Amino acid sequence: xxxxxxxxxxxxxxxxLSISTPGNFHAFTLRxxxxxxxxxxxxxxxxxxxxxxxxPALTTGCTVVLxxxxxxxxxxxxxxxxxxxxxxxxxxxxxxxxxxxxxxxxIAAHPDVDKVAFTGxxxxxxxxxxxxxxxxKKVSLELGGKSxxxxxxxxxxxxxxxxxxxxxxxxxxxxxxxxxxxxxxxxAFDRMIEGLTQEAGKIRVGHGLTEGTQMGPVISQVxxxxxxxxxxxxxxxxATVAAGGARVGNEGYFIAPTIxxxxxxxxxVMQEEIFGPVLCAVSFDDxxxxxxxxxxxxxxxxxxxxxxxxxxxxxxxxxxxxRAGRIGINVHGSVDAAIxxxxxxxxxxxxxxxxxxxxxxxxxxxxxxxx
Length: 371
Known about the structure:
By secondary structure, the protein is α/β, with parallel strands linked by helices. The protein has 2 domains: 2-143 and 347-370, Aldehyde Dehydrogenase, Chain A, domain 1; 148-329, 3-Layer(aba) Sandwich (Aldehyde Dehydrogenase, Chain A, domain 2), CATH 3.40.309. The protein has 12 helices and 18 strands. The strands form 4 sheets. The protein has a 7-stranded mixed sheet with strand order 10-11-12-9-8-14-15, sandwiched between helices. The mean pLDDT is 97.
């Protein structure tokens, strides 16, 4: 991310404008740094999230006050040491540890902060927006997700099955864009669930530094209880546990990769972000893309999604119908630095990464010269 964004530093340009006002004028625009940026990052990928935020802000010439999550401050503090070692001037990058309701709220409300960038829960995002109204600072938000994974009957199952498993079980499911809702055509449903159950059963859950571990713990006891609570709600509402469904062992915060079937659209497990390794699967008996998309779009979120098919026409038609900021075709997602990432609906405001990410940290200045 730092290497990619560094390449943009000499390519931040405005435009020369052709205007229709009578007379002899020269008009153009400039892009200037927004100023002091407050950045608040989550715990689920602490170094990656710091890079996503810092790199474009520094590229555009902003200074930064970065607050890491209280659960994971050490990666950002170590990065701060490396920034000092690299020779950044004092005050360009400032790292402030602390809790959200105190340190985070102070950054969001501070009158000398010109912009706040936040990644985290939709609920906290609302607090950020309210705090920012004091000086009408610019706000960008990457919030929650409940991303659909849509599998058509012609999909290559050797790709779709491990792809869907990766989409939900990577990082113990603690990913905003995780593919947590699985929609599979009835012709492929049984094979898909059987394959995913086998994939889930092969995943070695354990300590992250133990050789051979493929899935580590969730972040905390609070998160463990949240995830198991959702699984219990799903079972109570009529969902069937096809795989996992319980804690692993009696120590630590380990949860087995879980697949729930017989889920209904109004269940909490289908509507709310669990942020854990829990996949909710439903079948569809329909070839009408509009109706399939309507099901997939029945969510307050719109962060990501993926479509699995060999039919190029189906892929393109379906892609346009899904209301989400990033769509994968025969792949669920990518952390590539060039691909803009962000959400529709209550998944946030703005786009990070890529050229789009630079726009979060610049102001446009228009200039007109009478010649």
